[in-house]
Design a protein that fits this description.
2 copies of one chain form a homodimer. Chain A has 5 helices and no strands. In chain A, helix 2 packs across helix 3. The relative contact order of chain A is 0.20. The interface between A and B is medium-sized, with 28 and 28 residues.
Amino acid sequence: MTRVSGARDNEANLTRFGAAVRARRNALSLSQEALADLSGVDRSHMGKIERGERNVTLLNIVRIAEGLNCKPSDLLSEAGI
Amino acid sequence: MTRVSGARDNEANLTRFGAAVRARRNALSLSQEALADLSGVDRSHMGKIERGERNVTLLNIVRIAEGLNCKPSDLLSEAGI
């Protein structure tokens, strides 16, 4: 038995997180660039995070949540993670 | 004005996350090694995460939460993040 998530689950979790970021960002009428600058995250890295193409770190989750004026745990809840 | 967290905040967030993992692990009477094996996270990496010495990734947060039988968002809430 393995408890470890497969590659497909991993991808889905990253995609869901990115979608939650994008949804909050759009709700605030922020551009991706504006959110990157507010969060102190590199702009191209932010794009990859939103598309679920990067395994985002806890410190970047915290920074992005600050930029979105919400709690990191809310962002994960909204992503269904 | 900078919205970006300072080094001290970063450290505090990682330490709080590690403490939340440890608290749940102890509540389940799991050894650090057992949790590492359940989660599929390298044992020495798990030790560093619990001590707040590593910037844990979202996929490892998900794996650790699975090992602890809880939601990743709960783990962040319990860490006050």
